[in-house]
Design a protein that fits this description.
CATH class of the largest domain: Mainly Beta
Largest sheet: 3 strands, antiparallel
Strand content: 35-45%
Protein name: Chitin-binding type-2 domain-containing protein
GO cellular component, one term: extracellular region
Oligomer: single chain
Signal peptide: 1-21
Number of domains: 3
Helix content: under 10%
Strand order of the largest sheet: 1-2-3
Radius of gyration: 21 Å
CATH topology of the largest domain: Antimicrobial Protein, Tachycitin, Chain A
Pfam family, one: CBM_14
Keywords: Chitin-binding, Disulfide bond, Glycoprotein, Repeat, Signal
CATH architecture of the largest domain: Beta Complex
Length: 200
């Protein structure tokens, strides 16, 4: 076999190993996952996939239940921390909606909640954990118990049409209808001209 032929085979082999940089898709959610395991869908808090022979079969929780991958079952929203990343490529670091020492990492559309070291808090301006005394953190918190006469809302962390509804101490990610933005002052969705949002 000539040197030229070997070189061509090597180039073709290397081309086959290149990654596309595309976000995590349904087709590869089950790669390396044991048969019979259910994985959550990175784009939908209610959706999950059954893995068999590294093939993902989609399913969805009934009603308004979210999929709890740790417990391997559909669960109440207030028992599941689910954040759908709006950017599907690259890495974004976002503040947690409630806790100063937590932050959310979005990696190619998949979200992970992380915690700063003890004595540190997440600085939304520098997007790193800094000593607490250097971080301005005046986050609202969801009450542990719901008041049926008062719905508690928290502002979004990623986009201006995002907001959170508190339920049993958990902040549940929600979005305004297309074309509307969350008005944190009046606690409602409104047209862009009427909303002051620092996330534009």
């Amino acid at each position: 076999m000539s040197f030229t032929t070997l070189a061509l085979i090597s180039i073709v082999a290397m081309m086959g190993l290149e990654t596309s940089g595309e976000p995590i898709g349904v087709s590869n959610l089950c790669v390396g996952v044991p048969d019979g395991y259910f994985v959550r869908d990175p784009n939908d808090c209610q959706a999950y996939h059954y893995c068999r022979n590294e093939i993902a079969t989609p399913n969805k929780c009934p009603g308004d239940l979210y999929y709890n991958e740790l417990e391997q079952l559909c669960d109440h929203q207030d028992r599941v921390m689910c954040h759908v990343c709006l950017e599907k490529t690259g890495v974004q670091i976002l503040p947690h909606p409630q806790e100063c020492n937590l932050f959310i990492t979005c990696s190619d559309g998949a979200s992970f909640v992380s915690q700063c070291a003890e004595g540190y808090a997440f600085d939304r301006n520098t997007k790193v954990c800094n000593p607490m005394e250097r971080v301005s953190c005046d986050k609202e918190h969801c009450p542990e118990e719901d008041n049926p006469n008062e719905i508690v809302f928290l502002p979004g962390v990623e986009r201006c049409d995002e907001y959170f509804i508190c339920r049993a101490g958990t902040a549940i990610q929600t979005f305004c209808a297309p074309g509307l933005y969350w008005d944190a002052y009046n606690k409602r969705c409104d047209v862009k001209e009427n909303v002051s949002c620092s996330l534009y």
